[in-house]
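Exercise 7. Predict the joint structure of the components listed below.
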Amino acid sequence: MTETVVEIRNLTFYHSRDKKGLKDLSLSLEQGKVYGLWGRNGAGKTTLMKLMTGLLKPQHGSITLFGEEPFENRRALGKICFIQENHPLNPAWRIRDVMKVAAYFYPAWDPEMAESSLRAFSLDPGKKVKTLSKGMRTAVALTVGLASKAPFTIFDEPTNGLDAAVREIFYNLLISELEEGERTVMLSTHFIQELQAYIEDMVVLHDGELILHEPIESIRERAVYVTGRKKELEEVISHPEALEVKTLGSSASVLVEKTGEPWQLAQKQDITMETPSLQDYLLRKTDRKKEGVWS
Amino acid sequence: MKEQRGIWQIIWIEMSKSFVWFWSILLGFIVLGIALSMIYEPSEVIFQTNAAMYIYFAVIGAQLFKLGLNYGSTMGSTRHQLYTGVVLSALVLAAIGTAIHSVVYYSFGPLAQGLTSGMDLIHLLGLLPVEETVFTVILFDFSTSLMALGLSFAFSILYYKYGGLPLMIAGGVVALSVMYSPIRNSFWGEIVSWIMTGGAVELFAIPLVFAALAFSLPYLLVVRLNIYLKESASLK
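Solution:
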């Protein structure tokens, strides 16, 4: 039986005044899976990650990590590693200091993994953090995440600032780390295209609410661009559930979900179909761009 | 205790460099003073080193919480662990600082007296009504350094939680009380005279009590803190 790593029930957390945050969110994450966390700016991704890692205390609802609340609970926090975007690293530290300090906090810390990861990223342990580029700092933080061997590891925008070659190194290290199948990983990103090959389940937030939690394959198949004559697709174009409409002369292309009425209507017409990219679908799902110019 | 040792590492990596800078500058001034006194032979040159150390500890005390919080919390330390780690680190720092100062004071004082005709290193304790011995100097340095660390540590937590305005208002109230002569004479005057005429208990125990309060009271605030409430990962 698959173990539940994270169990969130009716979680609410509002930041003061502006009411931005999370609203009544429920979610379960299973052991050994790679989750993608996607949402636009302000969707609540960072708040969710901070709540899961005990940095924030839920205002309503509950979070359990391996059956225990993470807030102020070392037993739970010892099983989680949260690598933030622009992860805080003291500029005065050398890379070897970062590894030395991290070893105190992660019970399953693997010094050999840290060493091989630094080697893979071509990082000199004797270098000071303040002399590193943004990408190299990110690589140091990723090394901490990988070598922590934490049963639940969250990487927030892990490839931000990394060039293509370094990103590839990270993916290879991540894959070899996931081969054992015991670690649960959450990758939070705005740029889902590149990471989708590694993700099994997607968690999509919009305005503080969970709008999708499904295997990535089924999300990819959820929507389709239907293209045909504008006149024939009028009903589809004007339908409130149409996610995106692009027109060019007498032709129109409409993004519709296969579970909705627009899809039923479109199928009755002479249409061609094209699968949208995951990024396009998620963008349109969270921001309905009704009229556009066909590109 | 492993996590507390991690907090100590976080603090010590930063503070060890700071210590080197501070003591190098202080020793540099003393050596310069000795050299100039040997050359110009003034009738009297007095160096007072321990007050500089207390000011230095007040400065680094404000850094302790931020260091622990910024890097400890992000590695999964609980608030309790980072708090106890910071407090234990403060005790160790005060002990190390006191030890270094004692070495400096008891080696460069006689050196200055031997090499120059008018230069002397004095201790603040010499101005107070307690006999200056190695033991009292160490005790006074330790308790006062710890108090300086504790007070600025407590203020830094209040600053983190509530921002600068309440601290500025409190500072303004204290400044006004010093300027307003009835309060100055009745309250501050009493405190100064109490210190100047007090015994060992006032001089050594009171700073330790202040330090204990400064280190313990913010605990209740810290264990309930929401960390990184703002979006930015780096704490300002």
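Discussion. The radius of gyration of chain A is 22 Å.
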